Each structure stands twice: as C-alpha cells, then as structure tokens.
Amino acid sequence: MMSVVRKRRKPVAEINVVPYIDVMLVLLIIFMVTAPLISQGVKVDLPKASAEPLDPESEPPIVASVDQQGRYFLSTHPEPNTPLEVVDLAVMVAAELRISPERPVVVKGDGAVSYNQVIQLMVLLQKAGVSQVGLMTDSSLAETAGAGR
Fold first, then answer.
1. 62-147: which CATH architecture?
2. Element (H, E) at 109
C-alpha cells in the first residue's frame, strides 16, 4: 500500500484589518455628522454695569486711548491729542511706571474700534510692564441701558 502523504498548510500570519477599517469609517461618519452641529462660539450677553469712579484724591490714572482710525494716544504725553507710534507709547508708559509703579493704567477705546485693536493696546501695555489694566467706560451709557430693562 501506498502511504498518503498529507501536505500541511502553513498558518496564515496576516491580520484581518477589515473590521478595523469598518470601525474607523463609522467613527469618521459620526464626526462628520456632529462637527457642523458644534457651535463655533458661545452666545454671551455681557452685563451692563456701572463701575465706581476713581477716588479724586488718588493720583490720576495713565489713560491709553485708541480712536476710530486705530491711532494711539496717551494722557501723560505733553500733547495728549497727538497720535503716538506704538514704540513711543510703550516707552512713555514704561517711563511713567518707573516714576510711580502703583499708578493705575486704563484703556479708553472708542466705541467704533474693533475689539482686536483694544486687545492689541492691552498687549502693548503688558509688554511695557503694566501688570493690571482697567477699561474706561461711560457711566451715562450704563445708566441708560439699565433703565431700559
């Protein structure tokens, strides 16, 4: 009799990745569907409040202003109505703070100025060495806004 020789099959050493691809496609579809539903920003109703005025006995604050055209002004400049370059403003504020480090610094932004320009002014003041910056407001506007409620 002849002996039958069986060939042994070698085990396949491949990983079946089809189930993983299926899972990844499902996750991709979920993210594609939910991404447009996520809000890009948060709706915020900013509070309308009037702040207490500064003490008239204290040293007057350093007021850094930005107008509608994006020009910068400084209240301590010899000519406060003269626009200043960014570098000059930073140097003058730093010099004022060396003289009196506790002197308050406030930003006065025109109502028509973009938020970005006010933030740029605040960053400029921070680089000049100002640790705390206040925002100047018009108290008459806050009172009329509060009366309309």
1. 2-Layer Sandwich (3.30)
2. strand 105-109
